[in-house]
Write a structure and sequence with these properties.
By secondary structure, this protein is an alpha/beta fold. It is about 25% helix and about 30% strand. It has eight helices and 14 strands. Strands 1-7-6-5-4-3-2 form a seven-stranded mixed sheet. The protein starts with a strand and ends in a 7-residue tail after the last strand. The structure holds zinc ion (2 copies). The site of one zinc ion has 5 residues, from loops.
Length: about 325
């Protein structure tokens, strides 16, 4: 079911100053060359809702000329958008894959700062239910602050926010710059969970969201230039005694805030709701994509290097494999 909602908000502050930072882009140019005026920015490559690890949670920006689209907004997305040299107020549309906090926690934050920086045009928000109710709640939460700034400094009103709920495979958007389609993936217990495909002039990029290996994703990604796929790295006999954040990108002792809960249940979730790097490679091969980007990565084995991740994905895939880091441009 697609459900359209329009929310108009008065009053916004414009001119909080240009927000483009002269950001250092340590990974810019490290990946394959961008093509056809379309660039994929890895804003956050980290999986899971812990914080303080030195990398940020899942978020991607797609730029097509001057048009900016954001896919997922885990913790740090707004900050990373600016550090990538992009402007929140230029965001046309925001797409949420599913309702886990490492994909949606900055929904309200991103709207707020886009508005604060001078967002004038209608903003599209797409995602699974209850994205409409969530957006309404966030707007209600920030309204007092918006009203204060409006009266105090006097900015143009926030444009309409158009929310579209998605819960089946469908064409999502065709704005003359990008065509977007979504499909359903499997990420229990979160239902529905979505993957998105963006076709721009000359380039096609697919985001798996969080999922087990899925044929629906093979179909969505068929012939795409880039598949951004989540991945886990594990081995037989891995137990809950292993540090769940034993990710090669950061020392496991500094991998972020503690995760409360039952370690065995968390391990079961990671194993039963995600995709091994080998299988991400298998899906990339079956779909015939040119480049596989491993992002939203969780290693259950300590000491795994970028090269080991890439090697695992290449068992079944001959194309280019990139292990994503924050602020990489592809
Ligand atoms: Zn996730
Ligand atoms: Zn998830």
């Amino acid at each position: 079911m697609t459900n359209q909602m329009k929310v108009d908000r008065r009053g916004v502050i414009r001119g909080g100053g240009a927000m483009v930072a002269g950001a250092m882009l340590p990974w810019a140019g490290a990946a394959s060359a961008a093509g056809s005026g379309t660039q994929l920015h890895i804003l956050g490559s980290r999986a899971g809702p812990s914080v303080g690890s030195g990398s940020y949670q899942t978020s991607y920006a797609l730029t097509v000329g001057d048009a900016l689209y954001v896919v997922d907004c885990g913790y740090g997305a707004t900050e990373q958008l600016v550090r990538a040299g992009l402007r929140p107020q230029d965001m046309r549309d925001l797409f949420i894959t599913h309702h886990h906090p490492d994909h949606n926690i900055e929904l309200g934050t991103l709207i707020y700062f886009a508005w604060y920086a001078g967002l004038e045009k209608p903003l599209g928000i797409y995602g699974p239910p209850p994205i409409e109710a969530m957006t309404k709640s966030y707007l209600a939460a920030i309204k007092p602050d918006i009203d204060i700034w409006l009266d105090d400094i006097g900015h143009a009103p926030l444009g309409p926010i158009n929310v579209t709920e998605l819960s089946k495979p469908q064409d999502v958007l065709d704005d003359g710059t990008v065509k977007v389609r979504c499909t359903l993936v499997n990420h229990p217990p979160v239902v529905p969970a979505l993957a998105y495909r963006f076709d721009t002039p000359g380039r096609s990029i697919v985001f798996s969201g969080d999922t087990t290996p899925m044929q629906s994703l093979v179909e969505l990604a068929r012939g795409a230039d880039v598949l951004v796929h989540e991945a886990i790295y594990t081995k037989d006999g891995v137990t809950a005694n292993l540090t769940l954040n034993g990710d090669a990108r950061v020392d496991s002792s500094a991998a972020g805030s503690a995760i409360a809960g039952n370690a065995q249940k968390l391990l079961d979730h990671v194993l039963n709701s995600h995709t091994k790097a080998e299988d991400a490679g298998r899906i990339a091969a079956e779909a015939g994509v040119k480049t596989l980007v491993l992002a939203h990565t969780v290693s259950l084995v300590p000491g795994v290097t970028d090269g080991m991740w890439i090697e695992a994905a290449r068992k079944h895939f001959d194309g280019e494999v990139i292990f994503a880091h924050d602020l990489m441009v592809i």
